[in-house]
Amino acid sequence: DAEITQSPRHKITETGRQVTLACHQTWNHNNMFWYRQDLGHGLRLIHYSYGVQDTNKGEVSDGYSVSRSNTEDLPLTLESAASSQTSVYFCASRAGGETEAFFGQGTRLTVV
Amino acid sequence: RKEVEQDPGPFNVPEGATVAFNCTYSNSASQSFFWYRQDCRKEPKLLMSVYSSGNEDGRFTAQLNRASQYISLLIRDSKLSDSATYLCVVANQAGTALIFGKGTTLSVSS
User: Fold this and answer.
1) Residue A35 and residue A39: Cα distance in Å, rounded?
2) B79: closest CA of chain A, how far (Å)
3) Exposure string (b/e) for A29-55, b if CB count within 10 Å is 16 or more?
4) Residues of B in contact with A42 (CB under 8 A)
5) Above 80 in pLDDT, residue A96?
6) Residue A50 — very low, low, confident or very high, per pLDDT cuts 50/70/90?
7) B102, A42: Cβ pair inside 8 Å?
8) Beta strand B104-109 pairing with B11-14
9) With an 8 Å Cβ cutoff, are A50 and B96 in contact?
10) In order along chain B (110 residues), what is the average pLDDT of each group of 10 residues?
11) Which of the residues A74, A98, A107 would you substitute to probe the B interface, choosing the one with the greatest number of B C-beta atoms within 10 Å?
C-alpha cells in the first residue's frame, strides 16, 4: 500500500545544530507540505512543493529550508536549530484538485 | 482576520448527544473544504470532504455556505470514540496548499 513516512519520529538536538527531518511518500503525489503543530497555534504551514525542483514558503518559513530533487522526498532542514523550533512536525502529500492530504506520523523535535 | 477560524471548545457532551462545529474562512476564492480528525499525539486524518450541496456519512453531516464563507460539521448520536480534535481545512485559491483551523476539541462522556 502507498504510504507517507517520516523519520526520525523523535529527535533531541542542541541549539545551533543543523537538523534534517525526512519525509518520503509512495503515492506519487506532486504536492508535498511541511507543517508544525504547537499548542495554541494549530497546524502552521512551513514550506510546500508542487513538484520536482519547486519549493515555496509558507506562513512560518524563517529558519527552515526544503529541497525537492525527486517526487518521493521533501526533506526539511533547520539551518541552525533554536528552542522556538521545538515542536511536532508533520509532512503531508496530496494529489491536488479536491483530493485529501495524507499525513506522516509526525516528528517530535526538541531543541535544548 | 485569520484565514480559517474555529471555536476551540472544548465541547463536553454525553453519549448520544448531537453536537455541531462551525468554521469560517476568509478567502472567498477558496476551492476545497474538508474536516479532519486528530487524536491526541497522532497525525490528522480525513473525516470527510465538504461539498457545496452538503454531504452526509453515517452520523456525520457537513455543510458549506459559500456566500457566508462558513462550514459546519454535525455529529449525531455521539460515541465515546468521537472524542478528538476536529480540524476545519480549506484549500487555497490554487487548490494546492491546505490551510488548517486551530481545531475544536470534543470530549464525549458516558
Assistant:
1) 13
2) 24
3) bbbbbbbbbeeeebbbbbbbbbeeeeb
4) 87, 100-103
5) no
6) very high
7) yes
8) parallel
9) yes
10) 85 96 92 93 93 90 94 97 96 79 94
11) A98
pLDDT at res. B75: 97
How is residue B86 written as a grid cell? 476536529
Grid coordinates given for B74:
454535525
The three three-digit cell numbers of residue A32, written as one number: 508535498
A34 touches chain B (CB under 8 A): no
Binned at pLDDT 50, 70 and 90, residue A48 comes out as very high
Structure confidence at residue B95 (pLDDT): 67
Which residues of chain B are within 8 Å of residue A96 when distances are taken between CB atoms?
A: 95-96
Q: Which of B36, B44, B42 shows the shortest CA–CA distance to A9? A: B42
Question: CB distance A98–B101 less than 8 Å?
Answer: no
Q: Which residues of A touch B42 (CB under 8 A)?
A: 105-106
Run of H or E including B63: strand B60-65
- AA identity, residue A46: I
